[in-house]
Amino acid sequence: MNQFTTKVLLWYSMMYGCFKTLPNKEKKALERWETFNGCTSDWPGWEKYIGKRPAPPPCVKIKTAFVSSHLKLLIFKRDGYKCVWCSSAVDLVPDHIVPSSRGGPTTIDNLRTLCAKCNNSKGRRLDSEMKKGGARELEGR
Ligand SMILES: [Zn+2]
Fold first, then answer.
1. What is the distance in A from the centroid of ligand 1 to the CA of 22?
2. pTM higher than 0.85, yes or no?
3. What is 68-141's CATH topology?
């Protein structure tokens, strides 16, 4: 993980924490902004709470596909705010079913809720490459 990735991940985790404490008025403003601009996490309002999202240094390509706060919430809500593998409700993260490193899109159909623990044990493997758990999901496609 390079310095930039670390910085961005930190920013995203701040954004995530910040979202929970946003006054309703600001949440509405964020929602409106995302409706018009797409879910890019670049809402100007973040600036006054947590600063601007770190800009990538020139010629560094971002490989990790980031999931916007809005999309995250949609996925968490759909999955009942728990890990789809172990049902834990702690440290939830959005997970690409087909990893973005393998060309999986950042769409609601290719995302699901995992806890950090399950997500770490998964890494970049596909479900069908896992020894246990979750393999059913990809069968029959
Ligand atoms: Zn889990």
1. 27
2. no
3. DNA Binding (I), subunit A (1.10.30)
